[in-house]
Amino acid sequence: MPLAQNPLSVEVELPREDVALITVDGYLDVDTATEFQAHLANQLHHGRRHFLIDLSSVPFMDSSGMNIILRVYQETRGDAGSVHVISPAPAVRRVLDLTGVSITVPISESVDEALARVDEGPAVPDDPAEEGV
Predict the structure, then answer these.
(1) Which domain holds residue 18?
(2) Which residues form a coiled coil (predicted)?
(3) Under 8 Å between Cβ of 66 and 46
């Protein structure tokens, strides 16, 4: 069965000027990752610093999708931005957990929860040794 039967759909909304909500529907794999990356790159180019990536309608994601999420995470950190994955499907959540991506990139259950995390700022202290001070 050709993968073309499982096309990727990517929708972009702007809940705020510097926040892009990227809703992905379909298989996020080596055959569709370029389209996903193009949408993220376009939003970076337009000055978005925070990315909310809704993966609730993605039944499968391979390392291509994970690498793109990690790349945009690295790019946004330089601009005091953030990346948040929203409500990944169970199979995708398992992959994110097993690979450790969910430790680096926060996972939220809703857009509102992710927006609240954007407002809170980074959750990681600058110096873990000072955390108890």
Answers:
(1) 3-119
(2) none
(3) no
Would 18 be classed as within a structural domain?
A: yes
Instruction: Give pTM, 2 decimals.
Output: 0.85
Tokens 């499968």 sit on residue: 60
CA-nearest of 51, 58, 46, 48 to 9 is: 58
The alpha carbon dihedral of 44, 48, 50, 52 has a sign of negative
pLDDT the model gives residue 25 = 96
The number of helix segments (H) and strand segments (E) in the chain equals 5, 5
pLDDT score for 42: 95
Would you give the end-to-end CA distance of the chain in angstroms?
A: 58
pLDDT tens, residue by residue, 79-95: 889 999 999 999 999 99
Q: Is residue 13 part of a domain?
A: yes
